[in-house]
Amino acid sequence: MRALIDVPLMLLVTYTMGFFMYGFYRQFMARIQNRRGPPIWQNLYDNLKFFSKSETLSHGPMFFLGPMIMMAGAVTTVLFIPMLKDTAWLQGFSASGNLILVMFLMVVGPLGNALAVGASGNPFGVMGVTRGLTRLMGLEVPFFLGLALIMVQYETVSISAIMAAQPTLAEWTLVTNPLIFLVVLLPFIASLNASPFDVVGAPVEVYSGPRVEFGGRLLGILMTQNMMLSMAKYVLVVALFMGGASNLLELFVKVFVLFMLTASISAVFPRLRTEQAVDFFWRIPLGLGVVAVILTLWI
Amino acid sequence: MYHKTGCEGFQCEDQTLGADLAGVRDEQTVVDRLVAWLRQRSLFVLAYGTGCGAIEIRPLMTSRYDAERFGIIGAATPRQADVLVISGYLAIKTLKRVIRSYEQMQEPKYVIALGSCTINGGMYWDSYNTVKQVDHYLPVDLFVNGCMPRPEALIEGFVALQKRIADGEKGGWLRYRENLDWYKANQRRVLGANMLPDDTSAWLQVGGQA
């Protein structure tokens, strides 16, 4: 019964956080570039406008199903990550899922993307997807290694249990085991498709990559799922490293702090080439990961 | 003796811009108004750099004039764009590409034509291979005159377009759809055997869904 309220509420919270954070991101970037920038609501306006546009082209059924698969991936990811601790609310279906499931669900989006773009046959889209899958090879190894280390450290796969194990600042994973945070941080930025790892949707190289064939309503769906999935990932990292949150305000503040960290990194580093990104992931985060394995398991 | 009573010349711009929309405003429902407001607040621009006007788009989009504060931002592809900016003269070869880009844009879509060349040919008035009046081939919503107009003028044009969209203007795309035969005949006259295939406009002819 609680799920009936929880599900729409969690989706609403994620969506609201998504457009606020990305609206803020655009202002933040504008200030860095000595501009005024758009209002903080701009992403909401853009998104709703795309929903009010026509969608006239068709590349067969998979072209329409792809965005739906991606949206389904985002919605399920949101619902399997508990937002708050010490309360029965905003838990979604996290009782029946765990971190391993969430790791699988996060890959549903790229899969739907590849299917839709494959159906459209646009060379720029295919190029974007190829770049994305190549990058995925690089980022998933250190990212999942970091998440696996978290599971090892707390000896559980339940996100709620991991949150409950970090009641105070001194017990945050960020403090007890900062190396894992470093291992996860850069692949995390890449999985958000932010600079310097934004090889997939590079606007002047591959013309927004996988989104090249989408306009109108389907693009609106892609924007929505992107915002929601990104926020789900932020909530996950907050839960794993920053002790989760006991109320929505705390969650919002913690996500905002983490968002500012990633946004600042994105703002100052220019885009890497695909092979440079993969090289980087296999060297630095994976190297750190190996060190972290030794430190976590034997020390 | 001369007494100034009302507006004169360019001072009347606001009134003349909104005059034909007076009836439309009353017919709008609340949802229509909300959608129109959202549309004017978020314009994705496909800046088609046909001529020298393309040079004015850069300062417009970057720090100095910062069009993003009006919700105007560049789009990567025609499919994602709302506004097509034709920046300067159109050679007949380019016209074909512009039409193809325009027809790929999703409705509602608007066209802003930049500079004298798009209005009457400008300094290319006697050229054999440029199009003199762009309005004959594509439904232009707004002309920004000048040779070249400064970014301020372009921003003023965008703001005027935003005002019209918010007031419920349907936009040139409806005109294009209703008078498709006339536009296609004009296009065929200049493009001749080089006429573009109708696979991007076919859905307009069979009365596709908006």
TrEMBL record, chain A:
InterPro entries linked: ComplexI_Subunit1, NADH_UbQ_OxRdtase_su1/FPO
Lineage top rank: taxon: Bacteria
Pfam families, sorted: NADHdh (PF00146)
Record GO cellular component, one term: plasma membrane
Transmembrane segments: 7-25, 62-84, 96-121, 141-162, 174-194, 214-241, 248-268, 280-298
Keywords, sorted A to Z: Membrane, Transmembrane, Transmembrane helix
Location relative to the cell: Membrane
PANTHER family: FORMATE HYDROGENLYASE SUBUNIT 4, FORMATE HYDROGENLYASE SUBUNIT 4-RELATED
Protein's UniProt name: Formate hydrogenlyase subunit 4
TrEMBL record, chain B:
Alphabetical list of InterPro entries matching this protein: NADH_UbQ_OxRdtase-like_20kDa, NADH_UQ_OxRdtase_20Kd_su
GO function terms (MF aspect): 4 iron, 4 sulfur cluster binding; metal ion binding; NADH dehydrogenase (ubiquinone) activity; quinone binding
Protein name listed in UniProt: NADH-quinone oxidoreductase subunit B
PANTHER family assigned to the protein according to its UniProt record, in alphabetical order: NADH DEHYDROGENASE, NADH DEHYDROGENASE [UBIQUINONE] IRON-SULFUR PROTEIN 7, MITOCHONDRIAL
Gene Ontology annotations for the cellular component aspect, listed alphabetically: respiratory chain complex I
Protein family per UniProt: Belongs to the complex I 20 kDa subunit family.
GO BP terms, alphabetized: aerobic respiration; electron transport coupled proton transport
Top-level taxon in the UniProt lineage: Bacteria
Keyword list, A-Z: 4Fe-4S, Iron, Iron-sulfur, Metal-binding, NAD, Quinone, Translocase, Ubiquinone
Domain NADH:ubiquinone oxidoreductase-like 20kDa subunit per the UniProt entry, residue ranges: 51-161
NCBIfam families cross-referenced by the UniProt entry: nuoB_fam, PRK06411.1
